[in-house]
Amino acid sequence: MSQAVGTDPYSPSFGKMAVNGPWLTGSSGQNNRTSGPWRVYAKESDVVDPGPSSLWVLIDEDQWSINDAGFAVGCGQAKWIDWPGTYHNMACGLAFADGHSEIHKWKDPRTKVVVRNGVGQVSQMTVTGSVDWQWIAERTSAKR
After folding, report:
1. 18-45 pLDDT, tens per residue?
2. Cβ–Cβ under 8 Å, residues 117 and 15
């Protein structure tokens, strides 16, 4: 699930506050709910930029990248933090806030996790000029 969408179950208001989107700036720790430059979305009325048909909520993550329940996208820095799936002929499925889903085909070969000796080589990777990173960043969040 997108790290920019949903409510924080650990907040004092018991899941009524938006998630904090800690990786939206490109490194962990920034609380975008209270002071960060990027939007986070707790309820439908929050989804104004991007709009519901452009804000992805669920994604098919690469198996080697799964490390928690959130898919991190650094909107302020061109790098993969978590990696999208490429199982469907270099494409993956996404579900959007308006309820529609789509298969998106990735174009940049750097989007695919490199597998060596049966092990996926996943680590944060800068992808300057990646049309794939640009596409997902524009659909993850927007500047306040």
Report:
1. 998 989 988 887 787 878 899 999 999 9
2. no
CB atoms closer than 10 angstroms to residue 61 = 17
Counting every residue, how long is the chain?
Answer: 144
- Three-state DSSP at 28 gives coil
Question: What is the helix (H) or strand (E) element at residue 105, kind and residue range?
Answer: strand 101-105
Q: What is the DSSP string of 48-101?
A: -SS-TTT-EEEE-B-TTT--SS-B-B-TTSSEESS-B--TTTSEEEEEETTS-E
Cα separation, 120 vs 23, in Å, equals 22
Q: pTM of the prediction?
A: 0.92
Among 113, 116, 117, 143, CA closest to 127: 113
